[in-house]
Amino acid sequence: MKQYMVKVPGGKLLKLKIDIDSTKIKSIQILGDFFVYPEESLFELEKALLGVQREQCLDIISSAIAQQKMTLAGFSANDLNNLIQQAFEEHT
Amino acid sequence: MKWRLIIHKQPHTAFENMGIDAALQESCTVPVVRLYTWQPPAVSIGRFQSLHDEIDEQQCKKNGVDIVRRITGGGAVFHDAEVTYSICIREKNEYFSKDLHESYQAICGAVIAGLKKFGLEPAYIPINDIIVNGKKISGCAQTRKKGIILQHGTLLVDVDVDKMFSLLKVPDEKIRDKLIASAKERVTSIHQQLGKQMSNEEVMTALVDGFKEFFNIEFEVSELTPKEKKRAAEIQKTVFEAWSYER
C-alpha cells in the first residue's frame, strides 16, 4: 500500500495507506494521532470508501460523518479528502 | 455529591491500567478520578495509529517495555516516570458542557490547578496538551461511550527523551538526533521545571488538590469493587492483550 501523510495545520498527523485499483479505492487505512468519536465510526468510514471513485470520496466522507454522527478532532473531512485526491493524482 | 477517588500507589502493568480505566468507564455513576503509575514501563499508542509504524518492537522487548493500544485516540506515549490520571464522568454533568473542546479544557484545568501547587505556571494548549514555560508536561486523550466520558492523561514527573526515542520509530534514521534535540526543546517534566525530584505521592496529592479546587468538590476515597476488578481483568484479556497489533 502507498502511504500519504499530512500534518494538519493546527491539527494532528493524518496518514493514509491506500491501494487504488484503476479508478477505485481497493484498500484504505486512515491512521494518525487524531481523535474520532465514536472511534468505531472511523473503521466504518474505511469500509464505506472501498470501491469508491475519486469524485465520490468527499460525498462518502461527508455522509458518513452525518449518518454516524462523527466528531473529528485534529483533521477535517476536507483534509482527508485532499489526501485521498493526492493518492488518485499520483496514481494516474 | 462526593466524587470517587482511587489512588493506586502500587504500579500496574499497561494492560491492567487500560483494563481498569475501561471498567471504570462502564461502571461510572458518580464521577471517579483514578491516579496510577506503570510497571514495567510501557509505550501506549493511540487507537488509530499503526503500531509497526510508530514503535520499535525489538527495542521495547530488549528494554522490558510493554506495548499497549489505548481505546483513546492520540499519539504514542512512553509511560515511565509519570503519574497518570483518569477521570470518568457523565457527558451531561454540572461542571462542563458536552462540547469536546470544553470538556478537555475543563479536565486539563484541574490538572493545571494541581501543577500550580508546585508554583508552576502551566497553560492549556488545545486539543490535549498542557505546557509549562512553552514545553509539554502533560498530554491526555478522551473517549466517550454510552454517555460516559473517559479521559486519561499523563503528568511527567521525570523524562528521558533519549530512551523515549530509542523505543519509537522515526521517519528517517538520519534525522533521529535532530528529532531528539527538538523533542528535548519541546518536552519537560516536574523535575526539570522545579530543579528537584518530587515523589509520585507528592504529585498525586497535588493532583487531588487540583481536582478538588477546580471543580469545587470533595472526594470519597475508594477502591475498585470486586465487580470492577473482575470486569477490568476481562477487558484486559479480551481487548488490551489482544488488539495492539491489529493496525
List keywords for this structure.
heterodimer; A: alpha+beta; Enolase-like, domain 1; two-stranded antiparallel ribbon; B: 247 residues; alpha/beta; eight-stranded mixed beta sheet; 9 helices; 11 strands; globular
Provide a concise account of the structure shown.
Chain A is of the alpha+beta class and 92 residues long. Chain A has 3 helices and 5 strands; from the N terminus they run ββββααβα.
Can you put this structure into words, describing what you see?
The complex is a heterodimer of chains A (92) and B (247). With 92 residues, chain A is of the alpha+beta class. Chain A has a single domain, classed as CO dehydrogenase flavoprotein, C-terminal domain (Enolase-like, domain 1, 2-Layer Sandwich), CATH 3.30.390. Chain A has helices at 40-48, 57-67, 77-91, and strands at residues 2-7, 13-21, 24-32, 35-37, 71-73. A three-stranded antiparallel beta sheet of chain A has the order 1-2-3. Chain A has a two-stranded antiparallel sheet with strand order 4-5. In chain A, helix 1 packs antiparallel against helix 2. Chain A starts with a strand and ends with a helix. The model of chain A has no long low-confidence stretch (mean pLDDT 95). Chain B is of the alpha/beta class. Chain B has one domain (3-240): Bira Bifunctional Protein, Domain 2 (BirA Bifunctional Protein, domain 2). Chain B has nine helices and eleven strands. Chain B has helices spanning 14-27, 51-54, 57-62, 100-116, 161-167, 176-186, 190-194, 200-215, 226-240, and strands at 3-7, 32-36, 42-45, 66-69, 77-79, 82-90, 122-125, 129-132, 135-145, 148-156, 219-221. An eight-stranded mixed beta sheet of chain B has the order 7-8-9-10-6-2-1-11, sandwiched between helices. Chain A binds chain B through residues 12-13, 15, 17, 29-39, 42, 71, 73-74, and chain B through 46-50, 53, 71-76, 100-101, 127-128, 141-145, 247.
